[in-house]
Amino acid sequence: MIDIRDLRENPDKYRRGAQLKGVSVDIDAILQLDADRLAAQQSFEKLRADQNQASQQIGKLKNPAEKQKAIAAIAALKHSVKEAEDRAKTLDAELPPLLLRVPQPPDEDVPVGKDATDNVVIRHWGEKRVFDFKPRSHIELLEMHDLADFKAGVNIAGSRSYFLKGLGAELHSAVLRFALDMMTREHGFTSMTVPVLVREAAMRGTGFFPAGKDQTYHVDPGSENELFLTGTAEVSLTAYHIDEILDEKALPKKYTAVSTCFRREAGTYGKDTAGLYRVHQFDKCEQVVICRNDVEESKRWHMEMLGYSETLLQRLSIPYRVIHCCTGDIGVKNASMYDIESWMPSRYDGKTDATGYGETHSASRLYEFQARRLNLRYKDTDGKIRFCHTLNNTVVASPRILIPILENHQNADGSITIPEPLRLYLGGRQRIG
Fold first, then answer.
1. Residue 337, Cα to own-chain centre: how many angstroms?
2. Is 0.85 surpassed by the pTM of this model?
3. How confident is the model at residue 116 (pLDDT cuts 50, 70, 90)?
4. Alpha carbon distances (Å) from 183 to 180, 193, 232
């Protein structure tokens, strides 16, 4: 949620921010409602003050007729006070839902663009492998070594579903464990096991509602136990301190979690329906940082968190490129976002290099956008209460990451060389097949 005071003082910033993000929101209508709300509140307070003053004067009146007249006037005033109070409450309740729809303005360094086609490549890492044989797709490799069963997955759970089997399941677990160990043992993040079924307050507080509600699985709608399946551990990790006031000395909070994630993939009909790229259920190692309300500190953390993901891919010897996402592709909640796209040979069309990359990571900074919604604050050294800043990043998501692992490390005979960091988690095994 944005700061209403900042909206009043800098309305053009929010008009431009919404326009750049392609979000339809009537800033003028919100400002008018806010003005009406403040006027109604002032009117109520004045009438209530008049009522209290008139009540105090009654005791001083000696003349019965004057006292009776004053009592009648107070009764009429009481009715006006009630009307003013009701109007103020009504307008006060109307404002928050509208503010929830105002996107966070993108930072000035975010590339301007309408959608992902306008994203900017800022760097590459690794040499794309030149095969001296016809490489197989991850689907072919999975089926060849009996590592997955897509037909059974569809029979049991419908499209975009799968079973991982044997070494396929072990490789999936290994890469998640590798990511978690890297974050906890090397970078000092606190490991968490988090709820994947959450209340609406957590989804709304982290900015996934109302804009992303169509991507979410809704459990028991309409009941008092209404819950939602999360698409990332970011929801629970960030909402962990909801309504709390932290001590500045305890910041930054650094959390990581491996959780099962669920996404409806609404709007992607017909896209990547085969294989492991776009599925409804997956597992992800996520990282969240909650830090002081300091723009430069947030920017430093953003680059550091992005670097963790790059390190992981480099250790797995997977070529990748880093993308600075444009204004039309960063969503309503982010001030800035970087994606990492890994090289997936089977996606390459043989003509345009960009076709061979697939998104595997995303790192976002949100400043106080989520903290305001979650009422997540801290007390600084001067005793002032301030909203925290939040950031999040994908350490690794699987089974999507299995695509570049299998395809980049395959051999002519169809076997797959297991990246060295994963062998520890696979009993020392060096090869599949």
1. 11
2. yes
3. very high
4. 5, 14, 17
